[in-house]
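Long-time lurker. I teach an intro course on protein structure, and each term I like to show students one example going from raw sequence to a predicted 3D structure in token notation. This year I'd like something fresh instead of my usual example. Would anyone be willing to generate the tokens for the chain below so I can use it in lecture? Attribution to the forum is fine with me.
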Amino acid sequence: VALGAASLDAGAAFVNGSGQNRPEDNDHKDFSGRLGMAFGGLWAGGSAYVGQQPAGPLRRYGGELRLRHGAFKVQAEFLRGTQDSLPGSRRTWQEGSYALASGTWMSLRPGFRWERWQPDLEDATGLEVSVTAGLDWLLTQDGRNKITLNHAVTRLGGAPGYKDRWIMQAQTAF
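-- Reply from a regular --
Happy to contribute to a lecture. Here you go:
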């Protein structure tokens, strides 16, 4: 929605409440919503996810900032919430964040992403920190058709060493 020099973005959905990549096993529908405002190259917004998982209630709230200037983009998001892990168990506080930077030069778009996810703030062994560097080869002007090469390094809480992975993928849109 245009508001003079600014614009308002909003989205909302009701989704199955069983969690990602799981068959539906409850009658609850979770609510997900996002609201943001753009002014020039700056976008700021917030999001919420409220629902009932099979184990109990799930609540997540976040804030996001994005800055675009020409061919460059910097973006960051912070997320915090609660989840009841098992029926009758304690409430678990969760927290995550990421920051990314990318730029486009001709048909190449290099990027860098840092992310942090802690599924239980009282248990440091679950902390996961990842750093990813990647390169998109844009096959079309709109960037919807591309070949991507990423290298990601992840450190898991108290585990020794790192998970090191290379990912190459092709994307096309019709």
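Some talking points for your students: The first strand starts at residue 2 and ends at 3. The two ends are 27 Å apart (CA to CA).
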